[in-house]
Write a structure and sequence with these properties.
Blueprint: H1 9-35, H2 39-60, H3 68-83, E1 88-94, E2 98-105, H4 107-115, H5 119-137, E3 141-147, E4 156-162, H6 165-173
Antiparallel strand pairs: 1-2, 2-4, 3-4
Helix pairs in contact: 1-4, 2-3, 2-5
Length: about 180
């Protein structure tokens, strides 16, 4: 008889991550009809809370966050840890202080499609997690989704760059 130790860690991780990737779609299918219009708001709170765990992971591993490239790479590592080995992306540096994350495979998109869940809700989950985690790691930067698989694009593209200096000053002083 096999025991848990006889199963390779990478196989256990892959199976566990696949189960975790199904959860959002399962919750949506079951609870969205019951929660009605409040479902998106409630679910977003869950993903923002998960972003706090993403922040803790990055801090505990002492991942670098001082430049756009460092921040994008660290976010990539956090997403891979949380979302599993089927999550595939690539980070490219752009210009002096910009990066683009190209997501080539997302287990949440695959599982949502398989369960008949809404693609735009998958986008809202990712958006809430990504923006909240990135801002908590380094508020001097911003992330912007240029493309999203769950919205019909071939891949996701997330641009990471410095916040506008003018916008930062306006925010600190308040609108005139």
């Amino acid at each position: 008889m096999r025991d848990l130790r006889s199963i390779p860690d990478d196989v256990k991780w892959k199976i566990s991550a696949k189960g975790a990737a199904r959860l959002p779609a399962m919750y949506e299918v079951v609870f969205s009809p019951l929660a009605g219009d409040r479902y998106d708001e409630l679910e977003q709170e869950i993903w923002v809370e998960l972003s706090k765990f993403g922040f803790d992971i990055a801090r505990s591993l002492q991942l670098p966050i001082s430049s756009a490239g460092d921040l994008a790479q660290s976010m990539s590592i956090v997403r891979a840890i949380l979302f599993g080995p089927d999550y595939k992306d690539e980070v490219m540096e752009v210009g002096d202080n910009g990066s683009v994350v190209i997501v080539k495979h997302c287990p949440f998109v695959v599982e949502a499609a398989g369960m008949g869940a809404s693609p735009d809700r998958a986008f809202k989950r990712c958006l809430a997690f990504t923006l909240s985690t990135q801002k908590s790691l380094n508020p001097e930067y911003k992330s912007r989704f240029v493309r999203a698989m769950c919205m019909g694009d071939r891949q996701c593209e997330i641009k990471v760059d410095k916040e506008d200096e003018g916008k930062k000053k306006e925010t600190k002083k308040g609108p005139s």
